[in-house]
Amino acid sequence: MKRFLPIAVIFLLCSSSGGLIAWDYAPIQISLVPGLVLPFGTSDAGIALGPIGNISGRIDLAQAAGVFNIARDIRGLQVAGVFNIASEGMSGIQAAGVFNTSEDRQTFLQLAGVFNIAAALQGSQISGIFNIAGNATGSQIAPIFNIAGDVSGFQLGLVNIAGRMNGIQIGLVNFSSNGVLEFSADWEQQSGYLRESLKTGNSYIFAIYSVAAPENELFRIPDNTVISAGLGTRFGESRKLFIDLSVSASQAVGNDLERFVDAWTFSGGLEPKNVLAPWPTLDAALSLSLGIVHVTAGLRSEISLASVPNLPSSIAKGWSYSDIWFGESFTAWTKWYIGVSL
Question: Maximum CA pair distance of the chain?
Fold first, then answer.
């Protein structure tokens, strides 16, 4: 008889506490098995605990189980070994070994080994494979893909898909309604350089990658070839008239292509620092959309810094401007160019 006394005391305490607040509410709810709880008949709780799983109404503080949690409304924390489901509302944190799903309200943080799904996100989703959300304010981080409605924040993954993106997408493939994914070619009359570029991202911020060479050396010898990588932003409507501003770090390949490749692939005892000799490049371009083709005219400035004079003579052409800013002497060589993009 004595062995059952502690259980009876816990049962009476839970029952009496529930009665002081409301018959269907308990400060602490314990699931013996999913669907069978102490105090009997309670749905809503402050804290719900279960060795296997919890099936509850509203939870005000925390719901924790070894396998799964299901709640109508969470205002706090859901933690489970396999999955969590908030069927109507989620204002807090979900953490599970496999997946989390939530509806309505605001989800602050979802952590899962495989995937997260939220009707609306105001915080972060972090998973082992993918994340899906409605409109999101915050971040989505997953190694494979992220999908969301309008996003204010950033997405980090192999593939990122959003409605309107007010922030940054970092990945191999990025899509959004205001996205930028363009291939372009332009020609500088003063230097005789032809440049091919890829822009990927969105109108707020996009990445730009370029390769350029003199028109008589293109696809033949690398001596004067220049590669660049940087970031830019767009003002205006991509379907009409717009201005792109960008800043890049440029680098000459040089006359030893094999050494250059070995350094960037950490081969032959070389590292990138053995060939690294960058200089800043500033770009301002005005483009007019003619259907799927954009016609562009722009100005490009290559900056030669006195402390690191890496700019090749083949690039140092155009209108020059020399000055000292912030204690650094420099000469900017500016050239105009024309081009097209798709």
Answer: 99
Strands 68-74, 44-50: pairing is unpaired
Domain region containing 284: 180-341
**Are 209 and 154 part of one and the same domain?**
no
**Amino acid 24: pLDDT:** 78
pTM given for the model: 0.71
Least Cα distance to 67 among 89, 34, 110 occurs for 34
Which pair of structure tokens corresponds to residue 99? Answer: 């997946």
CATH (domain of 298): 2.40.160.20
Q: 285: which 2 tokens?
A: 């371009």
CA 225, CA 252: separation in Å to the nearest integer? 6
Query: pLDDT category, 202, cuts 50, 70, 90?
Result: confident
CA 128 to chain centre: 15
The token pair at 179 is 């996205």
Q: What are phi and psi of 273, to 5 degrees?
A: -65, -20
* Domain end call among 175, 199, 218: 175
Contact 90, 100 (CB under 8 A): no
pLDDT score, position 200: 86
52 in Cβ contact with 69 (< 8 Å)? no
Q: Which of 111, 144, 175 is the last residue of a domain?
A: 175
Residue 273 DSSP one-character state: G
- Would you call the peptide bond into 39 cis, given omega within 30 degrees of 0 as the criterion? yes
Q: How many helices (H) and strands (E) does the chain have?
A: 2, 28
pLDDT digits (tens, 9 = 90+) for 1-33: 445 444 444 444 444 444 434 467 889 999 888
